[in-house]
Amino acid sequence: MVSKGPLLRLLTAINRRRMKLLMGLAFVAYVASVWGNFVNMRSLQENGDQKVESKIEEAVAPLREKIKDLEKSFTQKYPPVKFLSEKDRKRILITGGAGFVGSHLTDKLMMDGHEVTVVDNFFTGRKRNVEHWIGHENFELINHDVVEPLYIEVDQIYHLASPASPPNYMYNPIKTLKTNTIGTLNMLGLAKRVGARLLLASTSEVYGDPEVHPQNEDYWGHVNPIGPRACYDEGKRVAETMCYAYMKQEGVEVRVARIFNTFGPRMHMNDGRVVSNFILQALQGEPLTVYGPGTQTRAFQYVSDLVNGLVALMNSNVSSPVNLGNPEEHTILEFAQLIKKLVGSGSEIQFLSEAQDDPQKRKPDIRKAKLLLGWEPVVPLEEGLNKAIHYFRKELEYQANNQYIPKPKPARMKKGRTRHN
Ligand SMILES: NC(=O)c1ccc[n+]([C@@H]2O[C@H](COP(=O)([O-])OP(=O)(O)OC[C@H]3O[C@@H](n4cnc5c(N)ncnc54)[C@H](O)[C@@H]3O)[C@@H](O)[C@H]2O)c1
């Protein structure tokens, strides 16, 4: 019999070595696999990181643009503004300052170096009209309805808040009345409280359908108190009455401007008056509609002339009403031909039958303004029309991009007919 002792010992020794070797190999394999996983995870993580980074970049890019815009707005160039000393600089409130006339008045007073607060409920006004001043240290814009009281410290108040064109003031006659009555009372109350001077933007409409031509300030007017225009005409008449009651009873300094037809950039597209109607029709290649033979006359002042007149009146010592308008009359047909020529339009002039209550003549007597304020209109009609046409062209482009092109609306309907305003 062969002894198993040394053989077993030999085999055991070989197995141990194998085991060690195998265990060594297993350890190396384990380390290699751990390392492989680690490397894989690293590359996955790197890919993930890249994705996250690109997502963050996507989110941040528009923010970066916004910051750039904000930076631009901080360094925005405002129109040039004069420097006024503390003594000469006034705190001025313009109600209706985001409207057509109010925004031009804002420009003038800001450029003259005053501190201007615009108060507007944006019924017919637009932020766009005064946006070039937003952020300026002398400018403030307040969204407020003058039918509610306002508490603010000011030296002068230009009270313009009121819709002015027939489609706008006839849209809500009760609101028009409230604005012109309660709104005016509120502003006069404010003027009394802070000792400010108030200028009321009144209108030639206080003369109604006049029996005298041209109309001077002593004419008391011919107004139908229950007609479709009464909310505006009578609203302005009672607003004038309120001014003089506050002047006599409370010693408030008042100025009353009776404004005649005015035109220029920033006027309403659906103003309904002959100038804007003709410009819109000519620009859109539509016939220029003339009611009757076109021999009726109208007189229009350019907006910068009016603004100069308002400022001259405010700073004068004339407390009685003053007409501000351009007495240069033109026939409706002349307006149509001139606008067609200036626009370069191929539109035809279409004669429609005469409207029943179309006044034959409208013309201000401005002798008082000339004598007491040294004021008269200076902007030639063609120059003013060219500026208005340029503005309307741009507006049409702007509104076309927004899919909205207003058509001129009839300014006033009587027995189903339109009239020239
Ligand atoms: N444009 C003209 O031909 C003309 C002629 C005569 C008189 N006016 C008078 O001049 C002033 C300005 O006229 P416009 O042509 O600039 O008109 P507009 O409609 O462009 O401006 C009037 C402004 O008053 C604001 N407003 C209206 N009701 C308000 C309220 N309750 N509270 C606060 N804001 C209010 C409107 O939003 C608008 O910004 C008006 O009082 C108008 O009666 C104008």
Automatic annotation (TrEMBL):
SUPFAM superfamilies assigned to the protein according to its UniProt record, in alphabetical order: NAD(P)-binding Rossmann-fold domains
This protein's record includes keyword Signal: no
Residue ranges that the Swiss-Prot or TrEMBL entry lists as coiled coil: none
GO cellular component, one term: Golgi cisterna membrane
Pathway info: Nucleotide-sugar biosynthesis; UDP-alpha-D-xylose biosynthesis; UDP-alpha-D-xylose from UDP-alpha-D-glucuronate: step 1/1
Subcellular location as annotated: Golgi apparatus, Golgi stack membrane
Key words of the record: Decarboxylase, Glycoprotein, Golgi apparatus, Lyase, Membrane, NAD, Signal-anchor, Transmembrane, Transmembrane helix
Reported cofactor(s): NAD(+)
Name by which UniProt lists this protein: UDP-glucuronic acid decarboxylase 1
Species per Swiss-Prot/TrEMBL record: Caloenas nicobarica
Higher taxonomy: Eukaryota, Metazoa, Chordata, Craniata, Vertebrata
Gene: Uxs1
